[in-house]
Amino acid sequence: MSETALIDSIIPRADIVKRAARIGAEVRNIKLSGDFPDQTIAAINSVLLEHKVIFFRDQGHLDDAEQERFARRLGKLAPHPTMAVTNGTASILELDSARGGSRADFWHTDLTFVDAYAKIAVLRGVVIPPFGGDTIWSNTAAAYLDLAPPLQRLADELWAIHSNAYDYAAMGHASEADKKHFDEVYTRTIFETEHPAVRVHPETGERTLVLGDLVQRFVGIPKHDSQRLFDLFQAHITRPENTVRWNWKEGDVAIWDNRATQHYAVNDYGDQHRVVRRATIDGEVPVSVDGRCSVTRIKNTKQPKVA
After folding, report:
1. Rounded to an integer, what distance in angstroms lies between the CA atom of residue 3 and that of residue 8?
2. Which residues contact 239 (CB under 8 A, 6 or more apart)?
3. Which end of the chain, N or C, is more open, meaning fewer C-beta atoms within 10 Å of its C-beta?
């Protein structure tokens, strides 16, 4: 049975429209709800595993509580390790362009600075500017398959150190408010975790690249050479052919498999206001192709500065 037939048999009038050949699909004529029966949730999860990121227009009926209630049907909710959630919810994180540190315009997989990072994210558009502010996703399983066999074998053997203490201040656009928010909130607790560069997806069995701009270096490889290797593999992940771009409207919802994607929030909307709210679902500790598990090496809370 095709995906469209599968979901249509469970959700009448729903329609799946591919957005790009390798990643992304829009699911139309469906209103997301925490009251969905189990078979509907299973159908949505099946479509997500196939397309890596799925989009839903016209979900203005959702508020924070209902977004969280729906997200909970996909698994155990996982609050952000360092940032506060919105009032009245257990896990909804608000990303507001008016506050420092909320423009995630770099390629990343969410929360890879911890070991069991989120497996799924549910993002809702709340305030969307009239132009700009798109998000781009890439398929890290397709990127792995693009590698020549010798490069696949090299990637299979590599391990990388991920940390939330990356050089945010070096980004040319970072304002003083951004830098202050990053130092006092996002990196209040420093995490450093060792992940395989290639993990085996626990549901599909695919091999996916685990990289992005939270990578500090490869284990056992000098920084200079690490950067060259990182650039090589990351360039495959971000090839246009491996990506899909979503033009947000208020009330849209995007759901992505965080184990098989990276994403980039395009910072092209100037001083306009943009607010999105995200719920994340607890993930599994990644397993490498040879069966080893990721491990957190450092978790260290900064001491407050004395005036």
Report:
1. 8
2. 138, 143, 146
3. C
Quote the radius of gyration of the chain (alpha carbons, Å): 19
Query: pTM higher than 0.85, yes or no?
Result: yes
In degrees rounded to 5, what are phi and psi of residue 244? Answer: -140, 145
Do β-strands 215-218 and 53-56 pair in parallel, antiparallel, or remain unpaired? unpaired
Q: What is the pLDDT of residue 270?
A: 93
Answer whether 117's CB lies under 8 Å from 260's CB: no
In a domain, 287, yes or no: yes
Q: Quick check: is 41 in a domain?
A: no
Which CATH number fits the domain that encloses residue 195?
A: 3.60.130.10
Which whole-number Å values give the CA distances from 288 to 49, 106, 209, 257, 278, in the listed order? 19, 25, 10, 18, 28
Domain membership of residue 255 (yes or no) is yes
Q: What is the per-residue pLDDT across 47-66, written as a single tens digit (0 to 9) for each?
A: 999 999 999 999 999 999 99
Please give the DSSP secondary-structure letter assigned to residue 210.
Answer: -
